[in-house]
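Moderator note: this is an archived Q&A kept for reference. The question asked for a predicted structure of one protein chain; the sequence and the answer are reproduced below.
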Amino acid sequence: MKTPPKDGTMILAQFKGYPAPLAAMWNGTNKEWVVAVPEVGAYNGVWEDTFFETEGYPDEEMEAWTLIVTAGQPCPYFEPEYFCKLEALLNTATKTGQAVTGGSLDNSGEIK
């Protein structure tokens, strides 16, 4: 895996033990990846109070990463390739109104 940028660039990264990729950037002071972890809390008895908490992960816990791209831009270098294929799948489902349920992408980028 190529080394992710440690210059304050925000990336999308997969860490050991977390089920989904997270927005992350390098924290040079603490020498770790700071990530935005989505959370939800109850407000007036309803689970709809969404927010982000930050957590730190050591370098060795990163399994994969990609640069974050803007909509309509080509995918830059990333590890592994399935991040952009997953984005394309979700974009197609959103445009056509289809639900995305089950399935997974392996390292070859094939939908299973």
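Archived answer notes: Residues 97-112 have pLDDT under 50 and may be disordered.
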